[in-house]
Amino acid sequence: MSLKMNLIRRYFSLTLSLLLFLQSAVSQQNFPEIDRAFKMNQQALGKDAVMMIYKNGKIVYENRLGDFTTASPEKIASASKWLTAALVMTFVDEGKLSLDDTVGKFLPVFTKYKKGDIQIRHLLSHSLGLDQDPIRLITLVNRNNKYNTIEEEVNDFAKKKDVVAAPGIEFHYGNMGLNIAAHVIEVLSGKGFEQIFQERIGRPLAMGSTTFVKNGDVPNPSGGAVSTAQDYMNFQIMFLNKGIFRGKRILQKSTVEKMMEVAASQTMMKYTPAAAEGFDYGFGVWIQEKDKDGKTTVVSSPGLFGTWPYVDYCRGYACIIFTKNLLGERKKDIYLAIKKTVDLYFPSSCQ
Using CA atoms, how far apart are residues 273 and 222, in angstroms rounded to an integer? Predict the structure, then answer.
């Protein structure tokens, strides 16, 4: 009898293990329409691409094209802005910085050139009121040859950039605001930007392959990060969980919600990249969708090289399409169409 019971227990144990395995396999593979949408757009996405979806505490979908894996490092361009804005907000969490603080309080060179009244909130929302060129690939390349530190670049902004509007009035998307904010936290902490990032975001979120100083580059907080799909997904998981990652709080819930509020609306938009036209802006992140009451439901941070991470709060998932192909104007519709396909599998909890 004892032998029979042992055999029965062993049988059920093996059966349970098999069922758990099959459940895991289904969770990774049972999304045929997403597979189709991802693969049919390979020409637009580029030879190498990875797509990941996280929901209910796990990665439920993962697919790749070409040689990319979830651990393949690549430049993420303006997707860097979301990381930098979150980093700046850790200082706000601690009370070391206020969104109402002026740049002149920390960087006297701006006061010297009568630009010291720009507030931290203006830096994070591209509404600082200074003239700046649209983001282009050649601009990113030339920057490394022009400056040795973020401080040098920021001082150049103070000296040479013309005032085109009062702070908080007009939205001009670019690299100035977040780079100035990055230098503010360098001054506050007495540390370099890369060190601050690793201490407060990189290591706490297990983003071991993410850096702003690849190949000795001068850190570009607005567009210079190198990351991987898995690393960036960790950041998105934290944001989806309103500031918590693996049981540890990285940002206060109220801080995440503040970053998602509209800081720059359509009436303020003077220059917006084609990929984000029609979106409002929060702090370091695009407001991709809102509910009928105007509350943010989807935030995203597309980059020039094609990586498009977003978090959908109504459907409770985070998704990243990670590529190394230029994000052209027509590709916006492809990314949004892929999202619509993903949404079919995850019902919305919003009214």
Answer: 14
Alpha-carbon separation of residue 86 from 59, 298, 307 (angstroms): 23, 17, 18
Amino acid at 233: M
Q: How many degrees, rounded to 5, is the angle at CA 10 between CA 5 and CA 14? A: 150
Residue 172 in contact with residue 166, Cβ under 8 Å? no
| CA gap 211, 226 in Å, rounded | 5
Q: Is-contact 328 276, C-beta < 8 A?
A: no
Return the closest-CA partner of residue 156 out of 193, 113, 212, 106.
113
Q: Please enumerate in sequence order all residues whose Cβ is within 8 A of that of 119, keeping only pairs 6 or more positions apart, or say none.
A: 99, 100, 101, 102, 103, 167, 168
Q: How far apart, in whole angstroms, are the C-alpha atoms of residue 173 and residue 190?
A: 28
Handedness of CA 231, 316, 281, 242 (dihedral sign): negative
pLDDT single digits (tens) 161-214: 999 999 999 999 999 999 999 999 999 999 999 999 999 999 999 999 999 998
Smallest CA-to-CA distance from 90 within 251, 290, 283 is with 251
Would the pTM count as exceeding 0.85? Answer: yes
User: What b-and-e string marks burial along 187-222, b requiring 16 or more CB atoms within 10 Å of the CB?
Assistant: ebeeebbbebbbebbbebbebebbbbbbeebbbbbb
Question: Of 317, 334, 222, 319, which is closest to residue 275 (Cα–Cα)?
Answer: 334
The pLDDT tens digits of the residues spanning 66-88 come to 999 999 999 999 999 999 999 99
Residue entry with tokens 């090289």: 305
DSSP symbols for 32-46: HHHHHHHHHTHHHH-
Residues in the chain: 351
